[in-house]
Amino acid sequence: MATESTNSSNTTKSGNGRMIAFGLIALAVVLYILGLTDSYESGLSIKPMDQFAVYPLFGDGPVRWYTPTNATLWMGLAVLSIAVLMVMGTGGRAVIPSRSQSMAELAYGFIRKMVEDVAGKDALPYFPYIFTAFLFILFANFLALIPTSFSPTSHIAVTVILALTVFISVTVIGFVKNGATFLSLFWVTSAPLVLRPILAVIELISYFVRPVSHSVRLAGAVMAGHAVLKVFAGFAGVMGAASVAPIIGVIAIYGLEVLVAAIQAYVFTILTCVYLKDALHPHH
Amino acid sequence: MADDATIEAANGAGPGMPQLDFSTFPNQIFWLVVTLIAIYFILSKIALPRIASVLAERQGTLTNDLAAAEDLKRQAAEAEEAYNKALADARAEAQRIAEETRAEIQAVLAEATAKADEQIAAKATESEARIAEIQANATQSVEDVARDVAGDVVAAVMPGQTVDADTVASAVTARMKG
Complex ipTM, two decimals? Predict the structure, then answer.
C-alpha cells in the first residue's frame, strides 16, 4: 500500500511535468501554423491533395529510391514513437506497470489475443510481424493527424506493399503447411456438387481481390479523411467570420479521423489474422 | 509549401493525385521496407521478449502469492488444529493426573489403613497375651497366697504340729480346682 501511494504521487508529479511539455508542444504547433498562414495567398485555392505530395527533405532534387523524403521522416518518427513506447516505456520491467508500460502491455496483449483467437495458437510465430504491421499503421495514422504532417498510410505504394507482404506470405505459408490440400480452400464441400466449380471460380477471384481491398481500404480511408479535413480548413481560411462552421466541421471530422486511424489499423490487422487462419486451417 | 513548384513539376501537369505519382514509389517502398525491418527488429529483439518476460513474471508473482496465501491459510488451519489438539491433550492429561493422584492417594490410604489395622491387631494380640500372662500370674499368686495362708492357718490352728508344705499345697490345689 505504501509503495503504491508513493508510486501514484510520483506519477502525478511527472504527469504535471508532462502536461507542461504537452502545452509547450501545442503552443509551438499553433505558432508554426499561424506562421504558415501568412504565406497563403488570399482567395479560394484549396489544394486538398498537396498534403500527400512526396518531396525530398533536403534540396529540390529528384526523388530517387534512396532520397530521404518527408515519407522517410514520418516513417522514421513512427519507428521512434514505437521505440519510445515499446522499449523505453517498458524499461522499468515493473511487476506493477507504469502508464507507458501498461499501454505497451495492452497493445501486446490485444494483438496477441487477436492472433490467438482468430488465427489459432499455431499462428503465434507470425505474431511479431503482425504486431509490427499493426504498430506501424497505428502510429503512422496517429502521427499523420498532426497538422502539416505527412501520412505514409494514405499512399497506395505503402499499403499495397503491406497488403502484398501479407498476401504472399499467407499463400506461401498455406502451401508450405498444407501442400496441395491448401487448394481445398477454394473447393466448398458444403455446397452442392454442381455449384462447386462456379464457387471455386468466385473463391479464387475473391482470394486474389484480397490484397486490393486490403490495401485500398486503408489508403482510401486515410486519404479521404485527410482530404476532407483540408477542404474544410480551406473553407475556414476564406470565409471570414462564418469560418466558425467549417472549423466546427474540422473539429468533428478530426475526432472521426482519430477513430478511423485506430479502426483502420485494427481492421488491417484482424484481416491479416483471418487470411492467416485460412492458410493454417484451410478446411474450416 | 515552397516545394509546390517541384511537386507540380514532378507530378507533371495539373493537380493529380500524389498517390498515383509512380516516380515516388521506389522511394516510398524502400523506406517502408527499412521502417518495417527496423520496427520488426526493435519488437522481436527487445520489446516482445521484455514484455513477455514481464507478463510471465507477473503471472508467476500472482501464482506464487496465491500459493503463499493458500499455504499460510493452511498453516493457520493447522496451527488451530494443533492448538485444539494440544488443548484436548492437556485436558486429558489433567484428567489422567487427577485420576492417578486420586488412585495413589487411595493406595497410600489403603496401605496406611492396612498397616494400622495390622499394628492394632498385633497390639491386641500382644495385649491379650500379656493379659493372659497377667491372669496366669495372678492365679499363681492366688495359689501361692492361698498355700501360704493355708500353711499359716494350719500352723495357727494346730501349733506344735509340723506343717507339711507339700500336703498343704496339694490340698490347696485340689480345693482350688474343685
Answer: 0.81
Residue B61 neighbours by CB under 8 Å, 6+ apart: A95
Residue among B151, B175, B172 nearest B163 (CA): B151
Cα–Cα distance measured from residue B40 to residue A129, given in angstroms and rounded to the nearest whole number: 6
Give the closest-approach CA distance of A192 to chain B in angstroms.
44
Q: Let me know: does A221 contact A260? Beta carbons within 8 Å.
A: yes
Q: What is the pLDDT of residues A174-198, one digit of tens each?
A: 999 998 889 888 888 888 889 889 9
Task: Decide if B115 is inside a domain.
Answer: yes
Residue B18 Cα distances to A47, A50, A75, A138, angstroms: 12, 8, 17, 22
Domain of B110, in residue numbers:
24-177
Whether residue B52 is contained in a domain is answered as yes
Q: Which of A87, A152, A156 sits opposite B42 (nearest CB)?
A: A87
In-domain check, residue B11? no
Q: Is A177 helix (H, G, I), strand (E, B) or coil?
A: helix
Q: Does B160 touch chain A (CB under 8 A)?
A: no
Query: How confident is the model over A141-162, as a mean pLDDT?
Result: 93
DSSP string, B91-147: HHHHHHHHHHHHHHHHHHHHHHHHHHHHHHHHHHHHHHHHHHHHHHHHHHHHHHHHH
Count residue pairs from A and B with Cβ separation < 8 A.
148
Q: How many domains does chain B have?
A: 1
Q: What is the pLDDT of residues A4-49, one digit of tens each?
A: 444 444 445 556 777 788 887 777 776 666 655 554 545 567 788 8
What is the C-alpha separation between A260 and A269, in angstroms, rounded? Answer: 14
